[in-house]
Amino acid sequence: MNGRVIRIIGVPIDLGADRRGVDMGPSAMRYAGLNAELLRLGWKVEDLGNLEVPIPETREINNKLLKYLEEIAKVNEQLHLKVAEVIKEGGVPLILGGDHSLGIGSLAGLALSGRRFGLIWFDTHGDYNSSVTTNSGNIHGMPLAVANGIGAKELTSIGGEQKKIREENTVIIGARDMDPEEREMLRRSKITVFTMNDIDQRGMKEVVHEAIRRASLETDGIHVSFDLDVIDPLEAPGVGTPVAGGITYREAHLAMELIAETGLLISMDMVEVNPILDYKNKTAELAVGLICSAFGKRIY
Ligand SMILES: NC(=[NH2+])NCCC[C@H](N)C(=O)O
Ligand SMILES: [Mn+2]
Ligand SMILES: [Mn+2]
């Protein structure tokens, strides 16, 4: 039992991605029993509902290199205020996506709350593009760069002009698909990238231990941003940008369990579940299982 409260914030956004469907992610995870499972683990749970997000059919693309910039900025403005408020009240924000562009708001909110936090970003992708390096113009390929002060002012200024993350405390796990210039940008940063090759060679346990060590250096908590496409598409088919060769179901749970053991998790994003592309809600059910492992569920 623990007395803390998880506050769920749904962000049904798909404006940052190329295909529709991830906007249904929050519903799919709720339908898979998220709230009840967390209650069973002894958490207090308060579902704050969904943020209001426009749908692409009612909007125009004004800038092909930054699609739906204004709308995405607006949603993340709202999100960052909510996240900061939850943390200041002593709660744990659990942000359900939606596409990964919501990472802009969750990281800006954490920064605004004044907490010094490390970041572990589970993703196939680097999400470190800007309008200069992107091939798609999709903003869900940009949130980590934005949080590090790189990108459109409308996005980097949310929650103030300063960088929202510290590179030394930021770790990507599971990378296997990066755009060439994005990779160069990441190489030039002090962000740690553990690719699938690192996981193959060193094992998930060692990789996560090292990630936790880096994310907790002179910080007082860890934020996990989990993009479901990091998992192998055989086990997580319901994602918009599937790439073969991902982490397994067991590796993903192990990672969440190791993070839970630290007691340092202060907030979490679970993003990129696409029920339209899923098989009988399998990916959302997996997402709920992983959230539970991150919040303390044990086999025995
Ligand atoms: N959050 C994600 N699924 N991002 C995928 C990004 C893919 C590609 N690198 C792009 O910038 O378009
Ligand atoms: Mn991502
Ligand atoms: Mn991804």
From TrEMBL:
* Keyword vocabulary terms for this entry: Arginine metabolism, Hydrolase, Manganese, Metal-binding
Q: Output one GO BP term.
A: urea cycle
Which cofactors does it use?
Mn(2+)
User: What's its catalytic activity?
Assistant: L-arginine + H2O = urea + L-ornithine
The answer on whether this UniProt entry bears the keyword Lipid biosynthesis reads no
EC number(s) reported in the record: 3.5.3.1
Reading the lineage from the top rank, the first entry is: Bacteria
**SUPFAM superfamilies from the UniProt entry:** Arginase/deacetylase
Q: Does the keyword Transport apply?
A: no
Q: State how the cofactor is bound.
A: Binds 2 manganese ions per subunit.
**What residues bind Mn(2+), as annotated?**
100, 123, 125, 127, 227, 229
The UniProt entry, under Gene3D superfamilies, shows: Ureohydrolase domain
GO MF terms, alphabetically ordered = arginase activity; manganese ion binding
Gene Ontology cellular component annotations, sorted alphabetically: cytoplasm
Named in its record, the pathway it takes part in is: Nitrogen metabolism; urea cycle; L-ornithine and urea from L-arginine: step 1/1
Q: What's its top-level EC category? A: hydrolase
Family in the record: Belongs to the arginase family.
| UniProt-recorded name of the protein | Arginase
